[in-house]
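To whoever is on call:

I kicked off a structure prediction for a single chain this morning and the downstream step that reads the tokens threw a length-mismatch warning. I double-checked the sequence; it's 177 residues and nothing unusual in it as far as I can see. Pasting both halves so you can look.
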Amino acid sequence: MLAALRTGDFDLAVGSRHVEGGDNTGLSSRWRHTLSDGGIRLAQAFLPVRLSDPMSGFFMLGRDDFDALAPHLTGQGFKILLDLVMSAPSPLRVREIPCQFHPRLAGESKLDVLVLVQFAGLLLDKVFRWLPAAALPVVLLRRTAWRGRASGGADPRAADRQFRISPRRRSPRRSSR
């Protein structure tokens, strides 16, 4: 990855499961493959560059490029690669490098309903470039939570505590904890 960036021909190097030599058999189930493939296809519909694995968490970007893009990041969710690519004022020059996704040895997947809502919010925010679009997933999550509460489910205010929408920041989001 570093060698690709050092040539000066690319702005971004991405480890991809979906190029020749890459492998995603490490996903835990058919359901995870379906979710991953669906998310990838949805993201690709809006990307300004060809990227076979926009969900990858394995990528490299030069510091100057990151510093220029950081003020435009939404800070929603954990799909920072997607956020970076969609925040660039012009299409980034991307080099995809094969990587293999092995089965998880420890820990648990972060994928849950909240992550899917954050993914939808990120896409809406980047595509429509306005806060109310990013707030739609929160409204949907709250409605779902209220329905759950009526049937004895979780407290809908928990959604507010877990996922807060704030105006787009002009500097990278930093935790105060």
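Update from on-call: the warning came from a stale cache, not from the record. Cleared it. Sanity check on the structure: The radius of gyration is 17 Å.
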